[in-house]
Design goal:
There is one protein chain. It is built from eleven helices and 13 strands. It is α/β, with parallel strands linked by helices. It has a single domain, classed as Spore Coat Polysaccharide Biosynthesis Protein SpsA, Chain A (Alpha-Beta Complex). The strands form four sheets. Strands 5-4-1-6-11-8-12 form a seven-stranded mixed sheet, with helices on both faces. A two-stranded antiparallel sheet has the order 2-3. Strands 7-13 form a two-stranded antiparallel sheet. It is globular and about 60 Å long.
């Protein structure tokens, strides 16, 4: 069975919900404490054995590319001033994986990055991730996906249970006969019509068959190309597709101010040197 060593990461979004912070920098480069959002995602991928990370970008994502490159002047400065730990951390970033950058071409939509990277994927299964979706878990969620794929040998998408009040905000999965197999994905259903409370998010394992299906898929809602439409077509034509729920953790989106703040607080709570600061601030605010 083929190992999963490649990931395609969609980072071509504009981040308009986080303006003006994203006016001159990619939303994926906004910091959560002392690391940019995209680095948390890359670390998750690497922990799962991903070696080649294909980032699908656009013209204004150069700072993201620079982050994963060597910074010789900075390294020399850190070495000269004896900041060994900082130097090692900076050097580690560029060594984590083989980074490949491709400019997005085609219609708007979260399916377009896959077609832009299609020639680099080949015929092997791969991870597809959205650059502003994080999963904070004890074990890398990408590793959870990869381990499940080894057992089930079927493509899959990450899901997380949401409250009844939230099902109208997300794509909600419909399961087949009490299994983890998908029968359908219902986009933003009314609460009383939701087939489950499991919302899909931007972490998947896909294969060449789905990429080829995407290439034949017509543009959908908003005249955009949606990966979910290709997955639904795959299922309708008899394909087996699974949903994988996050274990010992939670999906955290960062694409708007409220959720960005939630993500920052969640990661800060894991830092012993910051916990007291959070507690003091919360006390002062009461």
């Amino acid at each position: 069975m083929q190992s999963i060593t490649k990931a395609v990461v969609a980072v071509a979004g504009s981040g308009t919900r986080l303006l003006p912070a994203t006016k001159s920098q990619p939303k994926e480069m906004l910091p959560i404490i002392d690391k940019p959002i995209i680095q948390y995602l890359v670390e998750e991928l690497v922990e799962a054995g991903i070696q080649d990370i294909i980032m699908v970008t656009r013209w204004d994502k150069k700072p993201l590319e620079d982050h994963f490159d060597r910074s010789f002047e900075l390294e020399r400065s850190l070495e000269k001033t004896g900041k060994k730990e900082r130097l090692e951390e900076v050097q580690r970033i560029s060594k984590m994986a083989n980074f490949i950058y491709v400019r997005q071409k085609g219609p708007y939509g979260n399916g377009t990055p896959l077609l832009s990277a299609a020639t680099l994927i080949g015929d092997e299964p791969f991870v597809y991730a959205f650059g502003d979706d994080l999963v904070k878990s004890k074990v890398s969620f990408t590793k959870q996906l990869v381990d499940t794929y080894r057992r089930e040998r079927a493509p899959m998408i990450g899901v997380q249970e949401v409250s009844e009040d939230e099902v109208e905000k997300y794509g909600i999965v419909k399961y087949r006969d009490g299994t983890q197999e998908l029968e359908d994905i219902v986009e933003k259903p009314a609460r009383e019509e939701a087939p489950s409370r499991h919302a899909d998010f931007g972490r998947m394992i896909l294969n060449r068959e789905i990429v080829d299906m995407l290439a034949r898929t017509e543009k959908g809602k908003g005249n955009e190309l949606w990966i979910i439409d290709a997955i639904k077509n795959f299922i309708e034509q008899g394909g087996r597709f699974l949903a994988k729920e996050v274990e010992d953790g939670a999906w955290i989106t960062t694409g708007d101010p409220e959720n960005y703040l939630r993500a920052t607080l969640a990661y800060a709570a894991d830092r012993p040197e910051l916990v007291n600061v959070l507690r003091e601030y919360c006390k002062e605010g009461t």
